[in-house]
Amino acid sequence: MPRQADPIVETPAGTVRGLRDRSGERYRGLPYAAAPTGAGRFAPPAPHPGWSGVRDGTRPSPTAPQPARDFGRLDMTPYFGPGWVPGGEYLTADIHTPAADDGGRPVMVFVHGGGFVTGSNRAALYDGGAFARDGVVLVTVNYRLGVPGFLDLPGAPPNRGLLDLLAALGWVRDTVAAFGGDPGNVTVFGQSAGATLTGVLLATPRAKGLFRRAIVQSGNGSGAFTPEQARRVSAVAAAALGVEPTAEAFAALPDSRFLAVLPALAGLDLRTGTAGDPLAGLSPFGPVLPVQPADALADGPAAEIDLLIGTNAQEGHLYLAPHGVLESTTQAELLAFATRTLADPQSVLAAHRAALPDATPGELRSAVLGQVLFEAGTTRMARAHARISGGRTHRYSFGYRSTALGGRLGAAHTVELPFVFDLADEPWLHGDADLLGPAPAPAGLAAQVHGAWVAFARTGNPGWAPYDPQRPTAEVLGGETAAGTAEGMPVVPPRT
Description:
3-stranded mixed sheet; 16 helices; 15% strand; Carboxylic ester hydrolase; Lipase_GDXG_HIS_AS
């Protein structure tokens, strides 16, 4: 029986019961689309039929099928969450709101990362209490991942995970007022894969009218696969599964087979005569587009959207430090990696060495990886957006260095998230194997970063001057920005 204090909300799909906490009200596992099961896994998201009675919104939903991820000595559980929690109805949203009233508050919709193959809104890092405390309605969404979400197959629409996000934003538009939000003031923000997808939304015509602002945290404006690259991945996946590369053939297989085939897709050489691997071999999945998002912003709502965009100062450290590769990389391995990922590796390495004269081969490898995966595409998107939006672009660089792994993790990919969500003092983030390391978080940094995100969602201004491509600068949050970024020295971007 529900407690008398439990909040009850009437939505267009039915009635839902949530929970109250110190920061407001929380509603979990709300479906924004029908469960993607069977052949529906390779179809566009379908409307949810709704429900009768009172739906229990106090418990999280299942999650998208996904493999476990190993980050060596670093505990990334707060980022990835529980992994695959089986169940068909996982196209869901969680809402954390100050109150389900007619408050008309700013709405922020968060898109999780995880390399397009892992992650969910159940991750501890995405707790929305601080946003609700500060007068924002936070919505966190799940979407299809891996083979069902992004493998390009004849007979199936491409980018099904992106179609899920479009459906989720339509659901937010139609539903969030019941939870105290303003559907006319929606900010989409994502990190890593979620940030790259947020950038794709900026270039997507169907996204017009669904949101007003966007925040791209460590994404890649040039991170889309070409159709040729996507066909190469599909062919290898089909061969490994022993089926034809069609939606019909794949629809007959269980999700567990799609996870089992992932090792066969690792390390594919996706370089073509016209394009390098946009994700540097870290994932065989991602958006498939004929034109990179940063070059297609005029096709979508970008010109009318306020954009906050940035990267961390040592992004590549996340992929090297936990496995000891930051220390063990040799000069030969550095050159081999640069050759695989850059059109002119010698020039880029020379520029990085000039900017970082004391860097080890591992640190230079991290710098190249960060440039290819995040910095170059971020610069490309920031410049393109600034050209068409009339002063609506703001850029940041997050520089606080985690003390995890004996201080080696540094200002790595994901380290900004506890500050964005104002969770940096949580004890489960502090320890040598935890994301922020044993040292306490700097006093005031979480309030500064979280406050900037909230201010941007309210007004479009995070508190610093707009980005100007003619005099490019980024607001430095929590330390020094990286030397040798794509704006700070003459580098050669990856082939596109």
